[in-house]
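User: Now give one protein:

AI:
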Amino acid sequence: MNIGRCGRIGIAWGWAAVGLSAIPAWAAPSFDPVFSDHAVIQRDRPVIVTGRADAREAVSITLGAATRQVKAGSDGRFEARFDALRQAGPVELSAWAASGTVTARDVAVGDVFLCSGQSNMELEVRNAQDAVGQIRGSADDRLRLMLVPRAVADEPLRDFPKAPAWKVAGPESVADFSAACFYMARELRKTAKVPIGAISSSWGGSRISPWMGAKAQAQVGQAAQSALVSLHGRDPFAAERQASAAWEAWWRAATGDRTGWEPWQPAARIAWTPVPRIGAWENWGVAQTASYDGMGWFRRKIDLTAEQAKATAKLSLGLLDDVGRVWINGKPVGMSARSWMPSSFDVPPGVLKAGRNVLIVNILDNYGNGGLSGPADIMTLTVGPDVVPLADGWQYSLPAKTPDGAPRVPWGDTTGIGTLYNGMIAPLGPIGLKGVAWYQGESDVDLPGYDARMTAMIADWRRQFGSPDLAFVAVQLAAYGSPVTQPGESGWAAMRQVQYRAMARDPHGGLASAIDIGDPFDMHPGEKQEVGRRLARAMRAVAYGEAISRTGPQADRATASGDGGATVTFVGLTGALRTRGSGQAIGFELCGAGADSCRFVPGRVEGTRVVLAGDGQPATRVRYAWANAPVVNLYDDVPLPVGSFELPIAAER
């Protein structure tokens, strides 16, 4: 796959068991990164200061004028609870113990916001519109930023694998920070009049499921998969054995292959073709693979002596992009679901044999580049003291069709079960927050159940951060692709409606629509200043209680009119509805019962309503902006756009 905005590069942590089996002795107490120099502590709520010291060591902690005495646990972790602080100038946070002292300086008390999601939240200021000027003028010592490094874990981590740090806003810290998050925080600085802290924790291309903790997974019926991920952290081979058995059973059911004749068996009847070279199959110069996304099989024969076959063996195959599964002599050896991490497998005893061995690799490429990506020089089979190179001699075969519904590997990075929550949200601990900004959904388009997953994730995060009424504002997907000229179905429009309904149902939820500020040629539109302004406006409603709309203008109901048309009534708008560039509202559809019954109709704006005239055809539904990249021109007085919706037409009152 391509290493781009939705790519999988950066710091990542393979297993969750780090630091749990052996607790080191610390040279001195240390605070968790959220309490480093230049930190912002959430005002007006109790403060829980966390950190590490020597196991069972007594620690004295001072925050401002208050001091607490605590004792570290057997794992060296400590917590100190302080009463809520009001807005204050810089304070010091210090810890004393027999092993030493530590002080966090220039700690501000204000409001803290967490920003998370996929690539449109991750997009840096330096890659957004007007980057040079915005970076040059970004200095603000009362705005603090923390960028969480990418990390994957099978179990919730207490410590970040690579510690982030708070930085004062300025050209050096802002350039690589989330543009949407920075611009939201900058807007809130203008109205809140207190120090603002913004934490960005995002991963391009990620679905929502990796951001959901175990409790959220259980709420949506994924408890078993979540438990399998946890098992993978403790015993990778046991988890992979379970996952392989499920995958093999799925393959037989999906293809009808008999046991013993599947593609991973040496006896399988498959037409094999020599692999031109190690690397992405898109770069082979082969027409069939030039733009291929799907499944591919690879085979290599390995000859071993009897002594080698009995030796301890390790198989290294480099990068398997995106998901790789490995068999030797028809027996599962392992799998890789982290395409940025070179694969390495301990070969179970009894798998290798003297003479000819057959190594089979299945690759599932979801998007971008795929295949055995190497590098070739690290592809080896180590048997005892001997190293067998595996850089050449490979063959491949592509199935006529990739079967649908393959069980996914639950410990994957961007598609896993809880893996990003474990590595990038859990280590934040019980930090106090004012609100959360969420920009995600592109990777979940056309996947059912997003509403339930989003609701469960929000509840889980509120539990972690100890705030049942924590404000949560989601960005409604921007337009992407070519404008349509005929009505049709749209997964992006359906996702926008799901996002609105989830936020409207949540009394502490808000919505910032980006439907009108997309880019037809780029899924990552550069206009992030307006996204930030809209996020800040919604946050002012749900986090600060301002008497303004928390969702922007939204369709409330559609009522039949006497001429066979409909009248759509809107709520959440400021002032009245307005059209831009035309005297009519563009993008409305009247639809009958059939999937292909929708047709465009003009809309006449009347205050907070839009009237759609009948056209002599049956109408049971109304749709608006129902496309991936709709043409929209309906706004309120802010101006905020009306987003995608579909409503049934109720009988005339």
The CA atoms of residues 483 and 629 lie 5 Å apart. The two ends are 55 Å apart (CA to CA). The chain has a mean pLDDT of 94. The longest strand covers residues 100-117.
